[in-house]
Structure prediction request, 691 residues.
Amino acid sequence: MTTSLNATNTPASASTASWLESWLEALPAAGGPLEAVQTRGRRALREQPLPSSRQEDWRFTDLALLQQLPLAPACAATEPPSLAAPEPGVLRLVLDGGADPLAGVALPAGLQRLTPGEIAQGLGHTLAATGCEQHWPVELNHAAASAVLALRVSARHNLKLELVSSAGAGLLPLRLLLVLEEKAELELSQLLMAPAAGAISLVLEAHLARSARFSHGLVGLGDSGAALLGHLAIEQEPESHFNLTAVSHGWGLARLEPRVVQVNGQSSTCLRGLQLVDGREIADTHSFVRFNGPEGQLDQLHKAVAAGQGRSVFNGAVRVPREAQRTNAAQLSRSLLLSDRARVDTKPELEIVADDVKCAHGATVSSLQTDELFYLQSRGIGSDQAAGLLKRAFCEEVLRDLPDAARSWCPFEALELEAA
Amino acid sequence: VIRPDAPVLLEIRDLQARVEDKAILKGVNLTVRAGEIHAVMGRNGSGKSTLSKVLAGHPAYTVTGGSVAYRGENLLEMAPEQRARIGVFLGFQYPVEIPGVSNLEFLRVATNARRTEQGAEELDTFAFEDLVRERLQVVQMDPAFLERSVNEGFSGGEKKRNEILQMALLEPLVAILDETDSGLDIDALRIVAGGVNQLASPDNATLLITHYQRLLDAITPDYVHVMAAGRILRTGGKELALELEQRGYDWVDQELAALEAASERNPVGVG
Prediction:
């Protein structure tokens, strides 16, 4: 195969896996508005070793599935399944990695495209601020993405936006840049779907100015032969609010990294996560929250359901440096283990230097409670139905926090697990 | 009401059971006919709560001997849910809180499981709401409790009322109420006991597991059984409960000690 890569690329280092090298070689030449980013990402992938279990951040999660995917260089997205029409006044955009999603779309008041100059200035800023611009999944996105959806949200419009993506075979790279101005409000429902042999790479950056509110519901419904790699990087100015509710189900490999920096503290961050694994699936959430100023708040609940031989990983990093006095952070990880062969690894990672703070954390891993099951059974409810009610109750605590549209995309019935 | 010709609902013969490696029930015998109210009294650890859990099929208890027939059928080989569907009800001493499961949905699913077993039609949401609102009156319960999660954040009294509400919906033939009076103040006790009295009929039977006489002031038992060391030591009428109240349980210990001493002198059979 002849290489079509930019001449500035260095030859493949020994660390680059051959599957990755072939994938890189098959990519179209870097070009377009993200040429510089693409070039950088491709170089990085050649120079960086693949994440492996030797690195603490990847100890439990291996990328083996990725190399089994016939990663076509750019994936032809498939039509998303028929979804109910959005509510009146809600804009739905289909992101397929190719066509401009805004072509022919009349943007509602309060929503504008960023100019190329603004994109050049803003792109990568929040990745750097949250310390993940060189993460391998981010570089993968850099290498592949040829476009960015870049939007500004202005105040006083209380916008609702839906972003829908359905991958085909191959890698669908999604790159988003959101700028919320002072007092702007955005509710984003995002759906990511992939069939077997599909993969989605998502990199989202959002900057929340003072008193902005951003509520993000992310629903990833995959296949045991599909992969999802997502980085959500958020910068919060004081008095802003960020709510993330992320649900992943069915992916052979799903790795989500919400990364939040409260640039001067005094903001509120609410993180909700639910990941379900079955079969031999792996779901991994690595969250990172850093308070760079006083009086910040974090309310985090991460839940996992592990059945079959599934593996769930949660790592919750919270950084409270000296300047972050009077931080109030609470993190709870709760996992439901439904099979002897499933595995849950959960780890809080709190680094607290400030002395006047409240930082609570907790983790529980349990199977369905015998007493709860027996109570339901003693009322005539069959053991399977009883187990179903309890699993549903466990999941609802997160599902109910999704924005309405996202909630409608993943009713509990869509989150079926094989019989435990 | 004692009627010697009433059908036998529950026939417990030489029932033995253990939890983990500890033998708790050591040969319980009890016959319950339709229309009867039985009180089982005894100190903590005498085995009375174990008896109730074994009858309901709690998985932590293993039956090691004896038999239990419910209307002639072998109860012990049925799953807990099947026992409930055919009319055996356990009112829990400590009703379990189940966050996230709506009380109303739970009650509806349970009621329909029982109805299906009886060959009746399942109730849809609307028909069930009518039924549950009517039955709420049995325990004077606020309908707001239907909207909450099962027992979550309920006070002790509210939990027990919720138990009796379930009993009112499931209409069991044998209701076993395990320490239903524990943790109740006088008013709640009166309401709960009133509910039990309303639900008692010539066709069903009630087994009250209790520690104190005060429940029996409100619900008059036909029989009172005193349990000790995993057996029923003595059976009498309601006056036996009054005697216990006056004399305490010390005489039970003495009687038990005498019995054990006698069995050591004259061992009967080898276990």
